[in-house]
Design a protein that fits this description.
The complex is a heterodimer of chains A (253) and B (94).
Chain A: H1 3-26, H2 35-63, H3 69-74, H4 85-88, H5 94-115, H6 121-149, H7 153-166, H8 178-185, H9 196-209, H10 232-241, H11 243-247
Chain B: E1 7-14, E2 21-27, H1 31-42, E3 48-55, H2 67-71
Antiparallel strand pairs in B: 1-2, 1-3
The chains are: A mainly alpha (253), B alpha+beta (94).
Amino acid sequence: MTDQDALFQFLLRMGDNTLVLGHRVSEWCGVSPVLEEDIALANTALDMIGQTQFWLGLAGEVEGKGRSADDLAFLRDVWDFRNVLLVELPNGDFGQTLMRQFLFDAWASTMLGRLMYSSDKRVADIAEKASKEVAYHVERSADTVVGLGDGTPESHAKMQAALDLLYPYVGELFESDAVDAAMVSAGIAPDPASLRDDYDTLIKRVLSEATLNVPASKFTHKGGRTGYMHTEHLGHMLTQMQWLQRAYPGATW
Amino acid sequence: MSKEWPLWEIFIRGQHGMSHRHVGSLHAPDEEMAIKNARDVYTRRNEGVSIWVVEAKHIAASSPEEKGPLYEPSNSKVYRHPTFFDIPDEVGHM
């Protein structure tokens, strides 16, 4: 694996996380429980799609085969996606969506904070721009997790169930492999494992304020970011997300 | 207890505006979420640099039925406009 290959893989991981989660969150558009949350979720989804354009745009540039961000988003099949499994899981109820958002936002804010000091200026620039958006996302999702977790008995039970369901997917965000080792030695990105302490401090503060119990088990589902194996949900999502470009190749408007 | 979130009136100070202007209303469970919702609903096209929220029930308003006694008496009092003074040219634009 050359350094360029490793950088390409790293950028796909960043861009596919925001692409897949951005699409998932956009599925709430028009059907959220209240109008205000509907708009807020659409804003979050659009922010993440915007970040995707930067990450996958740079990925295409680094790959050097003339593929654009759109080509990478709409013309790859499931096995070529490099997002973590957490972001491709179905939305579930509103609480589950916000719990997943918080667990991801907390990682993204920690990761982007480090990437702002990347030795690759293109990566540092994207991180700086995205970190302002993510600072707001994590504030909002954390507040909602606290509001619902420390809310009524019903909302508390739903948030605890969401955390129990999603927490076993968190560990994949901190897995390291040869791609990460190459990024560390080039000074481009931190070792994911090195983010875990900051992440744990952040989520434990919020989840304890939300009166929720963090599951003890460190077991984690994984395979998304390496491309080894996705859940059955991603393929179904792509049939919707990619339908237009698959049915009408090259369509523009 | 009502299950509806209370209504909040939203005031935004624009990029170049001097004062906050009423832009609309929304529902939120508390004042912090009202500010966040206002950010998402009313500043997504870069409209503002500052947000005020006030719970609608705290706004006291004049009654439309009283508009006669309240406002008509001033219709005939044009001398209240400061347009009857000669302003020296040296003062320039006021």
